[in-house]
């Protein structure tokens, strides 16, 4: 169905499901969001909502990847999210970020920011190696060790698109309206913005995404009243906020803390977002994650690599309680935060002369080391898994 | 590596791993087995053993399918047996049957017959629809419902190869040597054979593979002494044998019951092979079956189809104890034996507005109906699974 591949199978306003070429789709939807902003036409918003739900509730990898099928580089059916053969093109995650960013301008709703952040730190960022020299076009959630980044290639696609995204990253942090400033993302940096005709400097001091403490300094030219919305990520169970040393409890409005006050030069906010390792589970209809769980901490999805975990793919995980964030002190992953804890490994004893058996493999305790998904394939080649089976009852 | 694809990357006698185009490989190995039989050269046998172990212990689907990769229609690496993208060409299973049959002539060892029978009743037989009109080229172990048999096609490959196999099926049942007769397979039918210069008629009365009782009548022209070897399948835990009404216990020699006696016209054997539904598990290195189990009864691998099991792919199975064989009385599956029992289904309650969650899906009891793998895709299109997740501990 070539028209479907091009999202041209019916008028866009009648489309209810994200289909066809994934990159093309989210670029198209981004254009529709621009049109909605420009015209205020509610029909565009309703179409955007339907298509967003189609993607975010039924066709989105945990990593923020979209477009499950290599054939046609396109979306698959609802909940069909194969891991090893995931296409999840780097550019599709980037396009999803474009789209989510535009929707955040229309509507400061956390659900868009969650997806934007997940794609940014996982499925898009995995597109480039740690040394910045090699690129993934395709971002699977499982590998047997034969999928590797390649050097910058001529195709005017993922590599330059990723460079553009990273070079323009500042645009994704804030939405500024006449009398309102929304903070969607956290990360060290300084921004110059203008609210209610007053220029202000907005500084974030933080080690996010490795730590959840964020210091914010707001320096308007002169005192100015506006609504500040600070996103509290959905993965965050506990958080606290203080202004100039005085703690306060705000209310969440669609996932954003709303602070309506007059801001003065040098006002300082301290936001502390609890960032604990946790297990994530997929919708029951996602067959490729049935009985499995993934490790996540903050916005980062973690994965296991064979280089750290002998026995992969036979590593099982039942809880995130034993996992601790550990900063790497040296080597190629220096500065990154790994998760170290305990899981289970299927013993190969007794399996030397059989491929199948009426007896299930026995599980034995095993140390587990997880690295951020975007970091995989930067060291020795080997298997990789995002989704790990949970230990079966009685095993 | 095109030479590897053609198994021409090194001299055949130096090859230790099954690689390249799967159909071509097993045809080549079949030729090598013929050469080994013709020449008695032990080097050929050693090569055959190594290649057999490479396939049977590391590259074989439970269904008797081989050749995991669609790209190049070839073998993948050890233990890499993806389900949904399995190539497992019908012709590759047929070629595996050719090869196993030749090895059985060289060496009456059950390990070859197990694979031959598994391929015959599962990965090869699935190649044709129940009405004999439509054919699978590719035999995956999981489907989202978009993989279907097609009508007889021009390619001189799977369809005619399958017809040839079924039309010559008798050749796969017996190996007859000068003073020995090996019975590899069971199934209703009559064979005319010659042992020690004496012609004999060998009749099997049985409903195998649906039932494990096999009546054998041996009618030589005149009394003749020879060794009869009856295969006791590896899946069979308990069996009994009687000759002319007198029960006897034989010893197993490489999986075959050895009966050395003078056979007289009208001698009757009754072999009873216990055939219970059981769960099968895969080697811990098979990541695509980690935490999963499959249903098998006798030589038949079973699968679940969406048409019988609402909620698939979220069906979990923890035991085969509740499963009973049930003969279908009417409809398109009339005469076939299904397995009916109890499993678990992941509840979708609470998942309406989320694709991922820190809470695992809850499992609730669910009836399960399994059909023989070869029967799938003969009714309504929908998901299919051979490997089912086992319920995680605490779920």
TrEMBL record, chains A, B:
Non-reducing end beta-L-arabinofuranosidase-like GH127 catalytic domain ranges (all copies): 2-170
Superkingdom of origin organism: Bacteria
Keywords: Glycosidase, Hydrolase
EC main group: hydrolase
Domain Non-reducing end beta-L-arabinofuranosidase-like GH127 middle positions: 181-275
One of the protein's GO biological processes: carbohydrate metabolic process
A Pfam family that the UniProt record links to this protein: Glyco_hydro127C
One Gene Ontology MF term: beta-L-arabinofuranosidase activity
Name of the protein this chain belongs to: Non-reducing end beta-L-arabinofuranosidase
Species this chain originates from: candidate division TA06 bacterium ADurb.Bin417
Lineage of origin: Bacteria, Bacteria division TA06
Gene name linked to the record: hypBA1
